């Protein structure tokens, strides 16, 4: 069964450093999502792509976060500089189209020291 | 805006007990409703879904019925197992439009921790 791949699974960094997370969605899935999940809470959408275009980044802290999906396939989420409050699980999900069920990857757990 | 409210946890049960996790929602329009499960250290897995009123979603012994009149989507299982121990998230997907194109967006509840003891 096809899965959403994410790497790394765990990342420890110091504040003010740059970090990057990678996501490879299920083949053929046009819509890709990045979520942030703070411990004890539900995921919150950071950015949504339809193919290579951003369709919603209203909750993305654009002063430090950036996301791209250059060829409409895999995607990278970057944080620069990282802050202590960025410690969380970063989840990637994909769906066949925007109205279909979302399938989640295993996530990247980030710890900022 | 849209919101999802789940019963507060944690919920602790003995094996073979009956499970109910309450979920209510607020939304404009006609959302689809979902239950996702998250095992320790893993991402979210879709457990079940319902796309319209009175639909019943079911999977692995879990069930939930879309109740529009009470805006609820409560999760139930008749006999839980130790392996069901996880965090359960209720979510809704509603549509929004921009530039003549419509999109879907998931809104999650805060999650309910379930622990099942032998």
Shape of chain A: globular
Q: Provide the β-strand percentage band of chain A.
A: over 45%
β-strand number of chain A: 11
Characterize the largest beta sheet of chain A: strand count, sense, and whether it forms a barrel: 7 strands, mixed
Structural class of chain A, please? mainly beta
Q: H/E order of the elements of chain B?
A: EEEEEEEEEEEE
Most extensive chain contact?
A-B, 27 and 25 residues
| Terminus-to-terminus distance of chain A | 37 Å
Round the Cα radius of gyration of chain A to an integer and report it: 13 Å
The low-pLDDT segments of chain B are none
The backbone outline of chain B, from C-alpha atoms, is elongated
**Unreliable stretches of chain A, pLDDT < 50, 5 or more residues?**
none
Approximate strand percentage of chain B = over 45%
Distance between the termini of chain B: 41 Å
Question: Mind summarizing the main beta sheet of chain B?
Answer: 6 strands, mixed
Helical content of chain A (DSSP H or I, runs of 4+)? under 10%
Q: Please count the beta strands of chain B (DSSP E, at least 2 residues each).
A: 12
* Multimeric status of the protein: heterodimer
Number of helices of chain B: 0
Mean pLDDT of chain A: 93
Give the overall pLDDT of chain B as a whole number. Answer: 91
Characterize this entry briefly:
The complex is a heterodimer of chains A (113) and B (118). Chain A has no helices and 11 strands.
Detailed description of the structure:
The complex is a heterodimer of chains A (113) and B (118). Chain A is mostly beta strands. Chain A contains no helices and eleven strands. The mean pLDDT of chain A is 93. Chain B has 118 residues and is mainly β. Chain B is 0% helix and 57% strand. Chain B is built from no helices and twelve strands. In chain B, strands 2, 5, 6, 10, 11 and 12 form a six-stranded mixed beta sheet that branches. In chain B, a hairpin with a 2-residue loop joins β10 and β11. Chains A and B meet through β5, β9 and β10 of A and β6, β10 and β11 of B.
């Amino acid at each position: 069964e096809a899965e959403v791949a994410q790497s790394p699974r765990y990342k420890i960094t110091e504040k003010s450093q740059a970090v990057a997370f990678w996501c490879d969605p299920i083949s053929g899935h046009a819509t890709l999502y990045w979520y942030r999940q703070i411990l004890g809470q539900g995921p919150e959408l950071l950015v949504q792509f339809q193919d290579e275009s951003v369709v919603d980044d209203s909750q993305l802290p654009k002063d430090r976060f950036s996301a791209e999906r250059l060829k409409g396939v895999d995607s990278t989420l970057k944080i620069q500089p990282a802050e202590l409050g960025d410690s969380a699980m970063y989840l990637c999900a994909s769906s066949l189209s925007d109205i279909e069920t979302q399938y989640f990857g295993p996530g990247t757990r980030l710890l900022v020291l | 805006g849209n919101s999802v409210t789940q019963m507060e946890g944690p919920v602790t049960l003995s094996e073979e007990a009956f499970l109910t996790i309450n979920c209510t929602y607020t939304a404009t329009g006609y959302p689809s409703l979902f239950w996702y499960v998250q095992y320790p250290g893993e991402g979210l897995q879709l457990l079940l879904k319902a796309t319209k009123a009175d639909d019943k979603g079911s999977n692995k012994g879990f069930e939930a019925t879309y109740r529009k009149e009470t805006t609820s989507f409560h999760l139930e299982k008749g006999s839980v197992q130790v392996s069901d121990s996880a965090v359960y998230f209720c979510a809704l997907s509603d549509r929004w439009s921009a530039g003549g194109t419509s999109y879907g967006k998931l809104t999650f509840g805060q999650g309910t921790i379930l622990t099942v003891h032998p």
